[in-house]
Task: inverse folding
């Protein structure tokens, strides 16, 4: 008869089970955090073979402002956005996939307080569609691959291409010319040479 006392054999069995539960919980937590970190880590370079991340992953990876712009088609305030007056040499890449879309040589000041470009790197990267929201008739611009809302395109006789792309800073990451090689965008360096 035990008399209500726990023997040393029972203690070691109990300790072993508690230890196994703790180790299993820590391992599961570590695996979960590893996969979350893999999903939300910052992209480097552009890999066209990678799938576009799901909206739930994008909500965790992007800032609230970036997510509202690219998935909610929100327009940022003029003169209160990151790249409206950026005059450094480099490329502008999709905030979702890092796909290069615009270069600094084609950026100009249209007096709108928004990043404005005369043309994209390639029109094949974008999709344009009629936007009748907010009681206006405009042409919306989205990225073909990620379906990210960028902004709008308008006729502009002052632009070398005859149009101006008025875009949201939050739809882009800017890769400065001096970082392009390090960030695996060296193939785009020749595009920055003066025309």
Result:
């Amino acid at each position: 008869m035990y008399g209500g006392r726990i023997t040393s054999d029972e203690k070691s069995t109990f300790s072993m089970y508690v230890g196994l539960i703790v180790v299993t919980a820590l391992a599961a937590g570590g695996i979960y955090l590893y996969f979350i970190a893999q999903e939300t880590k910052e992209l480097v370079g552009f890999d066209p073979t990678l799938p576009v991340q799901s909206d739930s992953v994008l909500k965790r990876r992007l800032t609230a402002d970036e997510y509202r712009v690219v998935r909610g088609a929100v327009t940022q305030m003029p003169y209160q956005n990151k790249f409206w007056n950026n005059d450094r040499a480099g490329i502008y890449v999709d905030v979702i996939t890092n796909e290069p879309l615009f270069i600094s040589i084609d950026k100009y000041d249209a007096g709108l307080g928004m990043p404005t470009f005369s043309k994209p790197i390639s029109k094949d990267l974008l999709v344009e569609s009629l936007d009748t929201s907010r009681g206006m008739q405009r042409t919306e611009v989205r990225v073909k691959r990620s379906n990210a809302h960028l902004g709008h395109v308008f006729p502009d006789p002052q632009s070398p291409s005859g149009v101006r792309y008025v875009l949201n800073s939050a739809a882009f990451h800017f890769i400065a010319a001096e970082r392009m090689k390090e960030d695996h965008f060296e193939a785009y360096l020749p595009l920055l040479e003066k025309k």
About this structure: The chain has four helices and nine strands. Residues 53 and 102 are 22 Å apart (CA to CA).
